[in-house]
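User: Here's a structure from my thesis project, written as structure tokens. My advisor, Dr. K., wants to see whether a designed sequence matches the one we expressed. Can you design one independently, without my sequence as a hint?
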């Protein structure tokens, strides 16, 4: 690959303060694509974009910048980014920010190397088999700890053709390099730390109880849950807590690895809550999580019991009792964070349930749940969370 051009897909709202340029320098350094995988180069924040562009100037690498990436990418926002990419003659992507810039960057990679429409790659229609060509390289520099998009094979985009948040998944979508620096997350406000952190925890939980066989993902999931139990509330209460921020960044990566096994109904319920009701994805997962855990009490009691222990509950009593304690533990954690505990508190209206249920059922994440989810079940889980 040449190093003539790069495109930056950035999210300036989440760029706060900064000190060290190591992540940026690594991103701009020639040959970065020869060191795939995630590593933690170290701290920085604020003026992050300049710290990424600085080394590129030094290396005489030109670039284009998109600094108004849509929160929760749409076809329109992806096509706009693709236009900038093409107009700039770019041959690679650097995504800096949260899940939205990551997913936008992945969509640009896909559409710059594969024909439209984007909807044909829908995972629900087995569209991943159409993703066969090499993609331009991508460096992911997360400034949140939750989505895991910096290290997973998925992108999520709202498409008019499918009428829902659409998952596109391919192993070749995994970024070429992820630069995971906990200090980039210091500027996140408490509500966003809580929302993204709960999303990370849910990725691990849903992977653990999914009815698929993937013992390695199970191990990652256990570790991810344990880290969230130890560090999430701490990171929310003190954004400068270095150990907690680092722990949550690793938890997000563990969740990203675990979700290679599967997700579940928490994500089926959460996905429509963003486009229909405007909820942040992580907040949506946090609100509906206890209802899904209760729905799974019989079908996944051993896994729920494990979750409770990983979160710090004592390993005593029957499995069923331990499973119930896990639900209460999650509720107690949520209580300590600035996120709503009910959908009605997040602005969701009861009259929206039919549409939400229809879209949740179309979302294929729930298919891996150990207890099958009929539309009526999903409706009940929405109502239990309301
Ligand atoms: Fe998620």
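Assistant: Designed independently from the structure alone:
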């Amino acid at each position: 690959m040449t190093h003539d051009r790069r495109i930056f897909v950035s999210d300036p709202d989440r760029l706060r303060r900064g000190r060290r340029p190591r992540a940026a320098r690594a991103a701009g350094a020639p040959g970065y694509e020869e060191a795939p995988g995630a590593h933690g180069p170290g701290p920085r924040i604020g003026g992050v974009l300049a710290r990424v562009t600085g080394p590129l100037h030094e290396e005489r690498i030109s670039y284009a910048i998109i600094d108004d990436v849509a929160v929760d990418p749409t076809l329109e926002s992806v096509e706009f980014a693709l236009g900038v990419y093409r107009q700039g003659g770019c041959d690679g992507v650097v995504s800096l920010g949260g899940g939205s810039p990551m997913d936008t960057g992945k969509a640009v990679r896909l559409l710059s190397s594969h024909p439209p429409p984007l909807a044909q790659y829908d995972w629900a229609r087995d569209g991943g088999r159409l993703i066969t060509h090499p993609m331009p390289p991508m460096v992911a520099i997360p400034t949140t700890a939750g989505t895991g998009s910096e290290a997973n094979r998925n992108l999520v985009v709202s498409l008019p053709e499918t009428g829902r948040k659409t998952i596109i998944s391919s192993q070749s979508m995994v970024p070429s390099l992820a630069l995971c620096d906990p200090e980039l997350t210091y500027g996140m406000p408490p509500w966003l730390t809580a929302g993204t952190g709960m999303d990370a925890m849910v990725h691990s939980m849903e992977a653990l109880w999914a009815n698929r066989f993937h013992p390695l993902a199970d191990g990652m999931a256990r570790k991810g849950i344990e880290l969230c139990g130890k560090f999430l509330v701490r990171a929310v209460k003190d954004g400068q807590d270095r150990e907690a921020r680092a722990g949550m960044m690793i938890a997000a990566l563990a969740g990203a690895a675990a979700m290679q096994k599967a997700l579940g109904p928490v994500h089926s319920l959460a996905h429509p809550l963003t486009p229909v009701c405007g909820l942040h994805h992580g907040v949506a997962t946090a609100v509906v999580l206890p209802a899904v855990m209760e729905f799974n009490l019989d079908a996944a009691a051993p896994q729920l019991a494990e979750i409770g222990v990983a979160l710090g509950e004592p390993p005593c009593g029957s499995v069923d009792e331990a499973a119930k304690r896990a639900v209460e533990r999650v509720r107690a954690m949520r209580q300590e964070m600035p996120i709503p505990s009910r959908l009605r508190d997040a602005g969701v209206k009861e009259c929206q349930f039919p549409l939400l249920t229809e879209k949740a059922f179309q979302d294929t994440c729930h298919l891996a749940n150990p207890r099958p989810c009929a539309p009526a079940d999903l409706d009940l889980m929405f109502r239990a969370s309301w």
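When you compare it with your expressed construct, this may help: Strands lie at 5-10, 37-39, 62-66, 93-97, 138-142, 154-159, 164-169, 177-179.
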